[in-house]
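Morning. Coffee machine broken again, so started the prediction first thing and wrote up yesterday's gels while waiting. Chain of 298 residues, entered below exactly as on the submission form.
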Amino acid sequence: MTSIIVIFSLENLAKKEDKMRSWAILIVVIAVFSVFIVGCGKEETKPEPTPIDAPTSLLPIAYTDSIRICWAKSPQHGAEGFKGYLLYISMTDPATMSSAQLDSYKVWAEPSLDTTYLLTSYRGDSLDLNGIYYFAIRAVRTVDDRDTTSGLVITETSPVLMGMGTIYEIASDTICAFNFHNGVALRADETTPEPDFYLEDCPECGSGLALKSPHLAGTAWTGHTYFKTMGTGTLDDYPQTTDNDWSDHTDVTMRVYAIKTSSNNFVKLVITGFGGESPNRFISFKYKLQTKPFYPHF
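Came back before lunch.
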């Protein structure tokens, strides 16, 4: 009887040892597998690519039937892995779009190293003189086999009416005023169309001449026009204006002016020449008229 009990106890002990050995092996297997998984995970995780700066400016130059868009290079332009720029053009503000929506307005399938683009049509149609066109640009660079993109730079504009003219200081028989919408010079006795500004002597002005609002002429003209100096340079240097700091007259100089007509249309005008002897002094000028009222992009 005693022998049977001893044999039974030895068998139980052996079984317990086998179970403990199995559990130990299982624990070792799980630990090794966990280390393998964690190690693989670390190898597959890549750091975020180096950020890239967007182009520093985006300048639209509006014409009557086209718009040229120009941008300054990203600071990373020419760096290793730099791929170029993605340009988007739409008639909806890109800032309101999702990434998927924005992609449908991409101009180039792949990034381009160009820094200018001429828009002559939009989705098969000629440009709409009253349409607003939005332009967005971003830079793209490949770092460690991964593409990274800059933030968007966005601007907008609309086609404009362009023209030029020459007028003389006001007198009863001279063409002394100008209407932008019709592109015509007018005499002091003409009221149809009513002018947007006229030229008059100005003793207190450095040039002796001033651009003035029609209502200051003391004639049948009633329209109120306002002026401000934008600066030196060309019309293309000033893509828009703010609606403040206006005056109803301004000194004639070889500068670029912003003009707000009585119909609330914005115009930019550059004096290209002036001279002559009183009372026949004259100015020559070029201009771009924004046909949409209250829209300050020209």
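Residues 1-10, 35-42 have pLDDT under 50 and may be disordered. Going to sketch it on the whiteboard this afternoon.
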